[in-house]
Write a structure and sequence with these properties.
Shape: elongated
Number of helices: 7
Order of helices and strands: HHHEEHEHHH
Radius of gyration: 23 Å
CATH superfamily of the largest domain: DnaA, N-terminal domain
Helix content: 55-70%
Number of domains: 2
Strand content: 5-15%
Largest sheet: 3 strands, mixed
CATH architecture of the largest domain: 2-Layer Sandwich
Structural class: mainly alpha
CATH class of the largest domain: Alpha Beta
CATH topology of the largest domain: GMP Synthetase, Chain A, domain 3
Distance between the termini: 75 Å
């Protein structure tokens, strides 16, 4: 009997709650509530890391956009979506918050470097590369 009650309570917690509150909130308030949610994810380190790495962006009509880096992160966030949205709705006093998750394109966060730019970056970390280049008579194109 006790187990049945626990299962029903868990189902009730995991269903989306939509309240009548419609308080406006800012991007900063969203990010703060997002970061605060990590206190509930300590037993799920992969989820916690995903929440810390991927920051939400406030769209129109209380839509929260989240770009994740791969399908594993997308799956983790989809599993947590209802609990996370419920938390955000309570924390931000807005029952119409919706979360949209997508995998970001590889080019969104990647910057390509020319050989010369890459070499200059490497020189910042190891100045002896300059000496080695001169000794070996190497040139950058």
């Amino acid at each position: 009997m006790q187990r049945k009650v626990e299962v029903e309570q868990k189902k009730a917690e995991e269903t989306e709650t939509i309240s009548a509150e419609r308080e406006a909130f800012s991007q900063e308030a969203l990010v703060k509530a997002w970061n605060d949610y990590t206190q509930f994810t300590k037993e799920k380190p992969v989820l916690q890391q995903t929440i810390q790495q991927c920051k939400p962006v406030l769209g129109t009509d209380c839509r929260v956009m989240l770009a994740v880096y791969n399908s594993s992160q997308e799956e983790i966030m989809l599993d947590e979506k209802i609990r996370l949205v419920n938390y955000l709705r309570k924390a931000l006093h807005n029952g119409s918050i919706e979360l949209e998750i997508r995998i970001c394109e590889a080019n969104e966060n990647a910057k390509t470097f020319t050989n010369k730019e890459l070499f200059i970056k490497m020189l910042e970390h190891n100045t002896s590369l300059s000496k080695l280049t001169k000794e070996l008579g190497l040139e950058l194109s």
